[in-house]
Amino acid sequence: MTKISLIARYDNSGLGNLSWELARHLKPSKVALIQNHKYQTFPERYADFDARKVEVFDSVFYNWFLSDIDVLWTTETFYNWQIIKEARKRGVKTILYTMYEMTQEKMPLMPSRKTTSHFRHQQSHPRSIFVEKVLSGLPLQVV
């Protein structure tokens, strides 16, 4: 089974609720809890997970969060883009779950080489993966 680390907000914002639903369905191995200091927080939602509040992305955090996982998943942003380089050093795939309103063009739910022109050059980027390949190994449920 694919092991996931999730960067999650733990408030009642749109990203906070989306993070909670992703955690409930994906059952990540580790959760990095990010606070935006604007909304009330609910860390107790993640009591059944190996979850830690994160203020600083440093080597201690990377060593914990990126060890023994296959995929790093986040919504809208990585909060600190250095984590992508750290993940790649460790062979960890990354997923940025984008918000539809943030895209410049209409995108299908599951992009592929046929539907998204920028994936046509995938062979020149051996570390890149297609979303459908990663998702095929995840414990997703349709509700």
Protein model, in words:
This protein is α/β, with parallel strands linked by helices. The protein has a single domain (4-108), classed as Rossmann fold (3-Layer(aba) Sandwich). The protein has 4 helices and 5 strands, in the order E-H-E-E-H-E-H-E-H. The protein has helices at residues 14-26, 59-65, 82-89, 131-135, and strands at residues 4-9, 30-34, 50-53, 71-75, 93-97. The chain has a 5-stranded parallel sheet, sandwiched between helices.
Computed Rg: 15 Å
CATH topology term:
Rossmann fold
Task: Using the alpha-carbon principal axes, give the shape.
Answer: globular
Total tally of structural domains: 1
- Major β-sheet, in short? 5 strands, parallel
Read across the widest sheet, the strand sequence of neighbours is 3-2-1-4-5
Please identify the structural class as seen in this structure: alpha/beta
Task: Please tally the helical runs, counting DSSP H or I stretches of 4 or more residues.
Answer: 4
| CATH architecture field | 3-Layer(aba) Sandwich
Give the DSSP E fraction (strand runs of 2 or more residues): 15-25%
> Helix fraction?
10-25%
Number of E strands = 5
Mean pLDDT, all residues: 80
Give the low-pLDDT segments: 118-133
- Give the N-to-C terminal Cα separation: 21 Å
Give the key terms:
alpha/beta, Rossmann fold, 5-stranded parallel β-sheet, 4 helices
Question: TL;DR of this structure?
Answer:
The protein has 143 residues and is of the alpha/beta class. Helix content is 23%, strand content 17%.
